[in-house]
Model the fold of this input.
Amino acid sequence: MDDYVVIAFYTINTPYEDEVKKLEADLKELDIPYDIHGYPSRSKWEFNCGIKPEFVRDMMKKHKKTVMYIDVDARIYARPLLASGFKHDFSCYHKQEELLSGTLIFGYTDTARELVDAWVIEQRDNPTVWDQRTLSNVYKRFTSKLDFLTLPAEYIKIFDTMSFVERPIIEHFQASRKYKTNLVIKGEMMIEVPANLKVNVRYAKDGTFWMPRNNREAEKYFDKNYIRYPGELRWWPITIDDNAVNKFKNCAAGKVGYLVGKGPSLDKLTADDFQTDGPIIGLNEAFKIVEELDCSNPKFGTQQDTWMGATMAPKSEGTLFVSPRAWKIYEQKQDNIVQINPVMFARSMTPPSHAIGIGLLKMMNVTKIVFLCFDACVNGITEYAKCVGYDPKNMGDPKRFLNHKNDIERYLQGFPCEWVIPTGQSSCELTSSYIPSQSSDNPELHHEPDHEPPQLCSQENSENTSRKGKVHLQRMSDRLDIQQQS
Done:
């Protein structure tokens, strides 16, 4: 049995579907183990390249052995003996100072997995940057601890610039040179503009399009058909049925809303932790736990990322709100999977999950938001609950969670809220809820991590009878309250 697998991906409904047939034929003829996947286009060449780090990570998790990544427009002429018995963390080729990402080998080691996880984060933080450059940035940070092997040039010959390689094992034909422009033209990004509007649009690297000068008729047309960037003559070329979301407006008027995170206390969450019948929103994997609760509260979930696949589909009467990116992976559309416009909640197509949850609950017209299982915001614990199923380090430095409370306050903008850490016990200890201070800061601004863990406040003992009985809850007030007490 081979101890490695060759992996490649392509975008569906693009010319790369023809390229993959050639590569697959080579792999079959040489009896090389391989795993090739097709993905929906993300509308722009750079965004499609951004699939690469996520794909490599998923393949490493799936196969648990050495993976050799090859661009799908390459040809392979011999079995890659270098990948067999590969004992290193990582191998790539540098052309002068430039890292080339057409052929990459990752050993199944802890350091290699850390490298790929960091690459995923780097790419998500820089979605318009070429994946080769984001990998180069991460590689430079890992050089001191990587067991690195320089990839022989025979494994990554570029057909017209590396003539010194006479007998290549892998040759790259770089189809992107001829397809890159076509992908933009044929993809979702290019829009149809009626001739009578007489307007020329421009396209930005972040995937938006814009008008260089105002045109009232064009503005009305774009507002009707696409998602507008607030306050600008700029739009995302995505169409969303707002009616599907609007039906939830004011659906919880006058009630308390609940937002459930993924901290360790999620393992202890029970139906008794919800003292009213207001809506519950579980962020990402927390939605699966919320779904299983034996309570009559309306249950909702959110999903923005595509790497989870279609695993978050509601199994019961719950409703899942998904981003335009995640919407594409649900081939079986359901009435209880609703595509949302992230710009409704933040000036971004990819705001943090808590911003989506806060925005949805405000739209439902709740009177207060109770945050449950946001352990990092309350007691500085940055781990995930065991039921989440993976370590937060897989997605980056968990210390980033320590700054979430500051970020949440900015999205709340003075809205009443309360923090709750379920303990699974039967008595009840409460503290008063609080209203965070108003902030005029833009929620999208980058905030430096708050390295000082949140302080614990003193608890006030009181009795609270819920519809399901008494519950033991540990509720923490904001540090602003503590400072006022001191």
Summary: Residues 242-485 form one domain. The chain has 14 helices and 21 strands. The radius of gyration is 25 Å. Confidence is low (pLDDT under 50) at residues 177-189, 426-486.
